[in-house]
Amino acid sequence: MSKRIGIEVSLAVAETVGLCDVDVVAAYPITPQTHIVEHLSELVADGHLDAEFVPVESEHSAMSACIGSSASGGRTFTSTCSQGYALMSELCYIASALRLPIVMAVANRALSAPINIWNDHSDLMYARDTGWIQLISENGQEAVDMTILAFRIGEDKRVSLPVQVNLDGFTMSHVIEPLTIPDAKEIREFLPPFNPVLRLDPASPVSMGGVGLPEIYTECRKAQDEALRASKPVIQEIFDDFARQFGRHYKLVETYRTEDADTIIVALGSIAQTAMTAIDAMRTRGRKVGIAHIRVFRPFPAAELVEAIGGAKNLVLLDRSTAFAGGEVSGPVALEIKCALFDKGLAPKVGNFLVGLGGRDVTDQNFEEMVERVASAKNGDLPAYEFINVRE
Amino acid sequence: MAKETGIQRWKELNPGMAVTCPGNAAELKTGDWRSMRPETDCEKCIKCGQCYILCPDMVYSKNEDGYYVQNYYWCKGCGICARECPVDAIRMVQEVD
Q1: Residue B3 counted as domain residue
Q2: Which of A55, A168, A239, A267 has the fewest CB atoms nearer than 10 Å to its CB?
Q3: A86 CB contacts (<8 Å, ≥6 apart)?
Q4: pLDDT below 70 — which residues of chain A?
């Protein structure tokens, strides 16, 4: 039976990884991901989880160990964020190119400098071009559900790709929430044993990670790109399957009060929940506002997003990282959305705001300011992006 | 699955580009970019086999007369054979086209 309990989200994620019957966890602790890894090591040490816990000396080694583990057919988990992610990143490209369904929880945190351990989406955006599937959770329940889904999606033979589960550092990782953790039997019914397409096996030898000369490199990249493209419908299919079993239904793009909205906010992660509160307040004053939350950032659900927001006159696009592009193009999230709209010939009024950097709170009031700023601006007056909550 | 010659179409690649056929490098022509090729003067050759042993690829094999002959399919023209031949029987010759 599923149990509903109050638990810190990090511990809930770790418990869920354990219930998913993971074989290998190789990870290095880094704030604010630490509790996830710490709790998994406890579960293994106390005999509650029959898995190999590899206390590696760095994130680079963590992902290296995960690649070996997954290549030999083990269900594999790791977790990191920020600088740790940056250190392991070269291996992340390899994990996806080798089509290894490693699952990694990222407790999203800002990148240095200055050193900052608090939440934003610098690491999420840093990871976007690595060929991993990126799932994003808004609250603790979603972090638990996305963890189960990540194993199922990644290990699906039609996908066979690594999956990131993003949860906001501190804002989610260190918060105690009431949430439902399915039991092991329910998870087993949803998540069959890992049966890889190919694996390192002395009985049937294969080589992984060979050289790709100019004669073959393009074909390898094309094949990998096709794999990520092909994963999109499978992800939604598995979301639907999850809903049938657990009753919680997810979509590639989630929406709230967008049906009649002339102004739509697009956000990723936990601030979407703050936005909903702000939207309810604005609605009582007659402002027709809604929000679209991007659940899956890679593969990017452009068609679903355009369907959700394409009818809006005003868009408030939020970026929680700084992309240093010189000021004349938008932040990474807004850039994707503008491209998706352009491809459909849509040109609503767009404001792109850099908010919630390095743990800065984003308040209801901020949402109202951003909505008003776009609504009252003349078309063409808005810059490519602007910082919100910055002392001039 | 198509032969793993290194020139497949993308749809023919194994997932993750895995190589499932060991030793398939023999099928990949790697000798198409040399500028010099080794030639053996059988008048001088003492059939010691140093060229066969020291060639980093699979260029040399013994013929029925006991001489070591080149298969240029893999030869990159590195010149190790010519450098190491104890009787200077191997000469590096410029590739003209």
Answers
A1: no
A2: A55
A3: A111, A123, A126
A4: none
Q: Which two tokens stand for residue A341?
A: 């709209």
B58-67 pLDDT, tens digit each: 999 999 999 9
Mean pLDDT of B11-22: 91
> Between B10, B11, B19, which is nearest A206 by CB?
B19
ipTM, two decimals, is 0.86
CATH assignment of the domain containing B37:
3.30.70.20
> Are the folds of A3-246 and A254-387 the same?
yes
B1 pLDDT exceeds 60?
A: no
B18 to A216: CB separation less than 8 angstroms, yes or no: no
In CATH, the number for domain A3-246 is 3.40.50.970
Would residue B6 count as lying in a domain? no
> What pLDDT is attached to residue B3?
55
What confidence score (pLDDT) does residue A270 get?
97
Domain span at residue B58 reads 29-94
Decide if B56 is inside a domain: yes
Residue B25: pLDDT band (50, 70, 90) is confident
Q: What is the pLDDT of residue B30?
A: 85
Q: Which two tokens stand for residue B68?
A: 């070591």
Nearest CA in chain B to A160: B15
Domain ranges of chain A: 3-246, 254-387
In this complex, the residue of B7, B11, B15 whose CB is nearest that of residue A198 is B15
Average pLDDT, chain B: 91
Find the length of chain B: 97
A138: helix, coil or strand? coil
Query: Cβ atoms within 10 A of the Cβ of A144, count?
Result: 27
CB contact (8 A) between residue A210 and residue B8: no
- List CB contacts (< 8 A) between A218 and chain B: 10
Contact B17 A205 (CB under 8 A): no
Q: Does A390 touch chain B (CB under 8 A)?
A: no
By percentage, how much of chain B surpasses pLDDT 90? 75
List chain B residues with CB under 8 Å of A198.
14-16, 18, 20
Candidates A65, A24, A73, A66; CA nearest to A197 is A73
Contacts for A320 with CB less than 8 Å, ≥ 6 apart: A120, A121, A122, A124, A268, A269, A271, A333, A354, A355, A356, A357
- Quick: pLDDT tens for A264-286: 999 999 999 999 999 999 999 99
The CATH-assigned architecture of domain A254-387 is 3-Layer(aba) Sandwich (3.40)
- State how far the Cα of A84 lies from the Cα of A58, in Å rounded to an integer: 8
